[in-house]
Write a structure and sequence with these properties.
Length: 820
């Protein structure tokens, strides 16, 4: 499917100018210029605050920090089997290897040997069981599980020694459980099963299905996805005075790292300092799973009283850490002649891996997103998080939402084919209403529904109906190449599943020269969070953006923070920073009125100037005057999302502050002889509310679309069926999309409309929701495969839709008429 890059494009200034012009065309630059002149600093497209540092190579990541004298390096010895018992570790030969300073085992951990986020079931290092009394050894849970840590003078020496784990470990292997189906058959789960029904504990849904004019029953497999962050997991631990510890860590959740390290070292939280300036990508993979690396580095540094850096090789990172959960579904639905779902029952079984990690919240979100943009009058959902002898799966952009929503899209796509209707018409017939048919299965009333207007705009702007007719004509004349088209919508809930995580703090400092420093609890992983927060502060204080600088996320500055996840980074931290900046602005306004006359309410801050009582001062001048009058020029801010509640036992409540909407249309061509395919065109309209930074948000939508397309088409995870080894553990075997996979026509626009809720400047989150937009790519491929069989059979296409999977589906639909 890859198209070679035209070398001329790489050397053509005109080509880059055309791209820039195309990007600018999607943003109303005239309106932005006018708003900027009036003093606005939000709603303005501006570069990422570290873009110039990225381009110049000056942006520092954890591995770029200067290493202190005496720094040692750590590598992990990994289990050679997927299941069994660890009866002994013979480490003498490893300790004698060149450069090795020490080898750390489970017994060397002074505190808790655990890095579980919610359930404490995830050991840092596999313990060795006592042998003298006949007791069995420690449980080995997956191939790649850390057994010990080697500390050496250099990273190469540490890795060479750790690679001898197979020789050092005496294990008794057992038969591994590798698939969610196997775990489900055994009733083997990491958390108790979950059940969510609209009414009567699911009893009514059976009656609705059985009474429906039409019924559909089936199964679906959707694979997982590796985060493949460009910067791998890394932690650098530095012992400090009095037994305290500082850890520089590439993490989305510094506070959780603080807690985990404190527990491992048997310290108080105030004795552990975590700092993260930026990450080279996270995508959820550094929310909880950076904990193991932070803790092991800290344990080694604590024992040896020397700095220790732990940066695993990419292959080891793959083998140790988890990823997006793969899901297996069984479903049954009843529907009417228009394709409206009358009743639906579905079981979702995920591959959770060996421990709970975040599998419970992921499944909760999957169940709460099965409805996607559709009213389901009767529905019963069952979620099972299967315990398997694989890496413990974790957060990934969308956090279960994509796995939940794709199931109902698959069902609706099949209903449309069974009825001989256009899939868009069936989807539209099932949309949520605005004042009726607007209550989710978990009881939340939808008050901000814009899906009708949004889809209508996209359908018109992309010429959906005319292109559908053209594709039908093309397929009738083309025996080998088949084209497919699909339009899919999204509705994505924004907030953490756990209400108390929806809070944030910030510090804003104004210095006497008028420059401003902001620190907040969110982490920057390239998504532009610091840029947006700085824009918010600049807007509140009426100064140029360049006056504001955001500093590293630091547990000694803002305490008790939540993870930068669930698309809440700008919502929470932007509001907290706004609160702090407003307090300073009010103090300055009060002072200006006292000093120069007038009332505080009449003082205006804009464009670096302060207008008060007919006078105009520079912001820096007013700040300097305020300092001499002993006015406090710094403040802390706090925000908690209002109106959230959730009962995890009944699976009912109001878990989301608002919903983000969107839709995408994709057109593909499939080669029916090889299974190869290409995305020809994608049109996207996404709801970002009143965007804080349209350029950044469009970039997020584009990136999420291509990343989600990779999940559904090329990124296949394969475990050896016998020994449980992850076979796709390197770039040579695991295929993420490249620039060549972007469609030649890629139209991305933001839907014009403010958030109905009082979010930060009425914007909406844009991190996770657009990952669901490339559902349209998968269903366009399914449409093309269906065309190869004359649309007489429903294609049994699984995700990822690799060329092999497409060929299998093609074989099935082409054989269907003969079998009938």
């Amino acid at each position: 499917m890859n198209k070679p890059i035209d070398p001329a494009l790489l050397q053509s200034a005109e080509a880059f100018a055309d791209y820039a012009a195309n990007t600018a065309a999607r943003i109303d630059t005239g309106a932005e210029a006018e708003a900027l002149a009036q003093g606005a600093r939000v709603g303005i497209s501006r570069p990422h605050e570290s873009a110039h540092l990225h381009v110049a190579g000056e942006a520092t990541y954890t591995d770029d920090l200067p290493e202190l004298a005496g720094t040692l390096h750590c590598a992990l010895g990994l289990s050679p089997v997927a299941a069994g018992r660890l009866e002994a570790l013979d480490l003498d030969a490893i300790r004698a290897m060149p450069g090795v300073v020490d080898v750390i085992v489970a017994d060397d951990i002074p505190g808790a040997n655990d890095c579980g986020s919610i359930v404490h079931d995830d050991p840092l290092l596999c313990p060795v069981g006592p042998q003298d009394d006949g007791a069995t050894g420690g449980e080995i849970r997956f191939l790649g599980q850390p057994l010990f840590a080697v500390i050496a003078r250099t990273r190469t020496e540490a890795r060479r020694a750790a690679a001898r784990a197979k020789e050092a470990a005496r294990v008794v292997p057992a038969e591994p459980v590798l698939t969610p189906q196997q775990a489900h058959a055994r009733g083997q789960y990491v958390v108790p099963p979950m059940h969510l029904a609209r009414s009567d504990k699911g009893v009514a849904v059976r009656a609705a299905i059985e009474a429906a004019p039409h019924r559909l029953k089936g199964e679906l497999d959707v694979g997982g996805q590796e985060q493949f962050y460009l910067e791998g997991q890394i932690s650098y631990a530095i012992p400090k005075e009095g037994g305290t510890m500082q850890v520089y860590c590439s993490t989305q959740h510094p506070t959780e790292m603080q807690h985990l390290v404190a527990h491992a070292l048997h310290l108080h939280s105030n004795e552990v300092h975590i700092e993260c300036r930026r990450m080279g990508g996270g995508f959820g993979g550094k929310e909880s799973q950076s904990g193991l690396f932070a803790c092991i580095a800290a344990v080694a540094a604590n024992k040896l009283r020397r700095p220790v850096k732990l940066r695993p090789d990419r292959d080891d990172d793959f083998l140790i850490t988890g990823r997006r959960h793969c899901f297996w579904y069984e479903y049954e639905v009843g529907f009417d002649d228009e394709g409206r779902i009358l009743g639906a029952e579905i079981s979702m079984v995920s591959r959770a891996g060996h421990s709970a990690d975040l599998s419970g919240p992921v499944m909760t979100r999957a169940l709460c997103h099965f409805d996607n943009a559709y009213w389901l009058p009767e529905v019963s959902m069952h979620g099972f998080s299967g315990r398997t002898n694989t890496q413990s799966n974790t957060a990934f952009r969308g956090f279960g939402g994509p796995q939940g929503a794709i199931a109902v899209e698959y069902v609706l796509d099949s209903i449309a084919r069974q009825l001989g209707r256009d899939a868009l018409d069936v989807r539209r017939a099932n949309f949520y209403g605005k004042t009726e048919r607007n209550v989710t299965p978990y009881g939340q009333v939808i008050r901000d529904n814009v899906i009708h207007e949004l889809v209508g705009q996209l359908e018109s702007s992309c010429d959906y109906r005319a292109r559908r007719d053209a594709i039908t004509a093309f397929n009738a004349k083309s025996p080998v190449l088949k084209r497919g088209l699909a339009l899919t919508p999204i509705k994505f809930g924004i907030s953490f599943n756990v209400p108390h995580f929806n809070q944030a703090g910030a510090l804003v400092h104004v210095y006497t020269d008028g420059s401003i420093l902001v620190n907040h609890g969110g982490t920057e992983m390239g998504q532009g969070l610091n840029t947006k927060v700085a824009q918010v502060v600049a807007h509140e204080l009426g100064v140029e953006f360049e006056r504001v600088r955001a500093t590293a996320t630091d547990t000694t500055k803002v305490a008790n923070t939540s993870a930068t996840a669930a698309s809440t980074g700008a919502d929470l931290n932007g509001k907290a920073a706004q609160d702090a900046a407003r307090q300073i602005r009010q103090r300055l306004a009060d002072f200006a009125a006292r000093r120069h006359g007038g009332t505080p309410d009449a003082v205006r801050f804009a464009n670096g100037k302060v207008q008060v009582a007919g006078r105009e001062l520079t912001f820096a001048t007013l700040v300097a005057e305020a300092y001499t009058d002993r006015v406090q020029l710094w403040s802390d801010g706090f925000y908690s999302t209002p109106g959230l509640h959730w009962n995890s036992q009944t699976m009912q409540g109001h878990p989301f502050y608002y919903f983000a909407y969107g839709a995408a249309v994709s057109e593909v061509v499939v080669d029916t002889l090889t299974g190869e395919w290409k995305l020809l065109r994608a049109d996207v309209l996404h709801d970002a509310g009143r965007s804080l930074n349209p350029a950044v948000d469009i970039g997020q939508v584009e990136g999420a679309f291509i990343q989600g397309m990779g999940w559904l088409t090329t990124e296949e995870l394969v475990w050896h069926p016998g020994n449980g080894k992850l076979l796709t553990h390197a770039p040579s075997t695991y295929k993420i999309p490249t620039a060549n996979d972007c469609p030649p026509v890629f139209n991305v626009r933001l839907f014009d409309g403010p958030n109905a809720e009082d979010s930060i400047h009425r914007s909406k989150a844009v991190g996770e929701p657009p990952l669901l937009l490339p559902f349209s790519v998968f269903f366009a491929i399914r449409d093309a495969v269906s065309a190869a069989g004359g649309h007489r059979a429903d294609p049994p296409l699984r995700a990822p839709a690799t060329s092999e999977a497409i060929l299998r589906a093609l074989t099935a639909v082409q054989a269907a008429p003969a079998a009938a």
